[in-house]
Amino acid sequence: MRIHWSDWSRSCIAAVGLLGLAALAVFKIPHGFEEGVGWYLILLPGAFFAAAISGLITRIVPPNNAFVFYGLLVCFNFMWYFLICFTSIKIYRFVSSTAKTSSRK
Fold first, then answer.
1. pTM of the predicted model as reported, rounded to 2 decimal places
2. Are 72 and 52 within 8 A, CB to CB?
């Protein structure tokens, strides 16, 4: 029996997996300082937006600055990986359906 999942649920699972792998690669694998910053910015690109928005929020609510930053970091990077996975699934479905219809002609 096959489980029929929607595209967004498959994308959510893939995004959580990719986010976990990125966090593991950035925070658990030992790097030098320059390499660590490079991997951080490549694998977790939501840090740019998280830093900017958390700077604005911590002016209003100063004691929760680390919580706000890490919460925004996880949310933005999850959305980034979700969009990548979702568009990849949609492109795959489009290409595979186009291949089936063109081979029938």
1. 0.82
2. no
Structure tokens belonging to residue 105: 């002609």
CB 57 within 8 A of CB 68: yes
**Lookup: tokens for 29:** 């694998």
Residue type at 29 in one-letter notation: I
| Distance (Å, whole) CA 27 – CA 4 | 35
2 in a domain, yes or no?
A: no
First to last CA, the chain: 31
Residue range(s) defining the domain that contains residue 84: 7-91
Query: What percent of the chain has pLDDT above 70?
Result: 94
* Residue type (1 letter), 76: F
Which amino acid, 57? I
The percentage of the chain sitting over the pLDDT mark of 90, rounded to a whole number, equals 46
